[in-house]
Amino acid sequence: MPRDEDDLPDLLTTMHVARIFRVARSTVSGWADRGLLPYTRTPSERIRFYRDDVNRLLAEQHHDARATDE
Question: pTM score, two decimals?
Fold first, then answer.
């Protein structure tokens, strides 16, 4: 589910997001395909992820991991 490109904040590549989450790039692409992580496309059609959305998903996963530990 792409977002509008009218305001482009810090954008991250699929590889960068994969490193942040310590997963494969294909996992990140799957998250984008399933609408779990919003993205935009560059003029050359490459996928980029918004830093704020990545941080939000990271915080949600951290919260979920803490909830299962309790």
Answer: 0.74
